[in-house]
Structure formats: structure tokens, C-alpha cells
Amino acid sequence: MSEIRVTTISDTAGTGPVTLTKQHAAKAWMHLNGTGTIAVQDSLNVSSVTDVAAGQYTQTHTSAMGNAFYASQISNNRSTSTNNSTSQHIDSTYTASLLNILFVRHDNLANEDSSRVMTSSHGDLA
After folding, report:
1. CA separation for the pair 119, 48 (Å, rounded)
2. N or C terminus: fewer CB in 10 A for the chain?
3. Do the domain assignments include residue 22?
4. pLDDT, tens digit (0-9, with 9 covering 90-100), for 5-29
């Protein structure tokens, strides 16, 4: 069996990291504290997040995706102790540069903030 051990993989010029363009790794991901004053806990290719309204956030990519037809997954951890579940939605107004996220409770159809918001996006970068 072969083994490769490296500290850094650089671009062909040796001046920077390898650019993820046509590879199958996630091109953007985020872990967000979505209650109170929202805060990105950790991320890749996310420049900012806006708290639009209760349960609604806009994630802006640092580097745009190649087009608006990338695939995104969303998960969340509810901020309340009730057993009411939520639906995670990607708003239809998403673009190559931003992703609109919405959480709606099943019991009353009200939007609700989430204590943890996790996203992952796959596709090609522009």
C-alpha cells in the first residue's frame, strides 16, 4: 500500500493552494449560530451571512459558483425544546453568488431561527 504525507499541496507555481474547480469536493460549506446575533462558526467560501428575518438567512459566497444550478444541502438544530419539526428550504431566488435559506415549523407554518445552521454546496466554481 502506498502512502502520501504532505503539509501543503500548492498550485503549479508553488505560490498558493490548489484551486478547487472541477474537483468533487464541496465548494462552499458553513456552520452558523443562527440565533440572537448570528455568527459563522466555521466555513469555506462563505464571505458573509445576513439575518433577513426569523428563520431566514442569506449566505454569500466568496467565489461564485459557475452557475445557479449547483446542489446545496441544509440541516439545522432547532433553537427551542419543543418537538415541532421544521422544514429546510432553499429559496428559489438563489444565484451563483448567494443562497437564501428558510426554516419553517410544521405545526404553525411560522418561520423559526435555528441554533445551528449547516450548509454544503457542490458544483463548479466560476
Report:
1. 13
2. N
3. no
4. 877 777 788 887 776 656 678 999 9
Look up the domain containing 109 and give its range: 28-122
How many residues can be counted in the chain?
A: 126
4 within domain boundaries: no
Based on the structure, what is the number of domains in the chain?
A: 1
Placement of cell 445557479 in the chain: 68
Residue 61 belongs to some domain of the structure: yes
Q: Is residue 57 part of a domain?
A: yes
Bridge partners, 78 (sequence order): 114
Tens-digit pLDDT profile for residues 73-94: 999 887 666 666 778 888 777 8
Output the pLDDT for position 15: 80
Query: What does pTM read for this prediction?
Result: 0.78
